[in-house]
Amino acid sequence: MFVLKTLTAAILAAAFVLPATPAAAASPISLTSGFYVNPDSLPAAWARNNAGDARAARIQSSIGSKPIARWFGNDSAIGTTVANYTGAADGQDKLPVLVAYNIPDRDICAGHSGGGAGSVAAYKTWISSFAAGIGSKPAVVIIEPDALNGMDCMTQAQKDARLGMLLYATQMLQQKAPNTYAYLDAGNPGWTAASTIAYRLGQAGINNIRGFAVNVSNFYWTSESITYANSLNSYLSTAKPFVIDTSRNGKGHGDGWCNPPTRKLGVVAQTGGGAEMLLWIKTPGVSDGPCGTAPGTPAGQFNPDLAVRLIDGT
């Protein structure tokens, strides 16, 4: 009788065992052994293709050999492109940094880096495929630089559409790229008020992802960016981790934002440093637009003279 009661109790207990809680997504930092160096970054490719140029060795040593984010725009095969890139990094046990840069009406207010997907539907398809291309591989993603700050010239309907697309982007990365740390771009200390950007971060789904990025493609000192990020966090319902772009802040903020003179490379990619990570998000040597010290170089194009200026701080 005792055996029967014991057996019955065991059966009943087994019947009411709750399913195991899924394991939390792992940190992509802990899953890898350092940052991925893209052998085909614009500076590395230029140095390789111009080996006879006196500047090539210096550009490769100081920039091309360093971990730099890769920017992804309009691409009908974006899922495959991203899968191949993150797969190459994963094969080396390294952590890639990607920038999703395809929001419709991109850079609508400034104009130098215009472009992006042709419609809301096209963007949703693109970002869904982008996230699926990463899948379970470890990665860091910066979501749409300038998208939250560069809205002041837009109509309310355009703003609402953009916020909806960013929200969708955070949802796709949350659902389809579980081992990715994703960060919404939040501008820099000299742009929009922290209270305004914090509100927009909330609308764009900041709580779906890891956190936010500051100083992307800009020049502010790391200490200034930390102060700004802490101010943003004071307005958020829940404080979030942040990353800082240090690619060109070795001398702090200069005269303007578009290829200003006498700027310098900042510290290379690392964890910590006052933020969750310090990253080279902007590619050093890539023009901000046909202005400043590169009046003839369109936005997104590599210019070796710009690269050498950043190496020398001139």
UniProtKB/TrEMBL annotation:
Enzyme Commission number(s) of this protein: 3.2.1.-
Signal sequence extent: 1-25
Residue numbers binding substrate: W71, W191, N218, W257, K282
Sample GO molecular function, one term: hydrolase activity, hydrolyzing O-glycosyl compounds
Top-level taxon of the source organism: Bacteria
Active site: D146, D288
GO process terms (BP): cellulose catabolic process
Protein name: Glucanase
Species this protein is from: Kribbella antibiotica
